[in-house]
Amino acid sequence: MKKITTTDDILNDRTLFTEQQAAKIRANIEKKAQKLWGGSRSNSGRKAKPKSEVLQFNRRLTEKENQFIDYARAHNLNYDDLMEG
Question: Which is more confidently placed, 24 or 16?
Fold first, then answer.
């Protein structure tokens, strides 16, 4: 099987680039990718999140709704059988 060469493999090869050159290339890649893919930009009103921080999923429900969902998941309720039509 043919090994896939990644950008990191090339940048980590010290015969091609020095550490400073590799850092400059990585910074340039990051800058261009941010332009293409958006994300937090200056004066956009978004707070920058650390890349290691995992986003959390929040359910904005009442306590009874949370209890029902937890009960339904624990007992494998089929919603189609409970609903009409």
Answer: 24
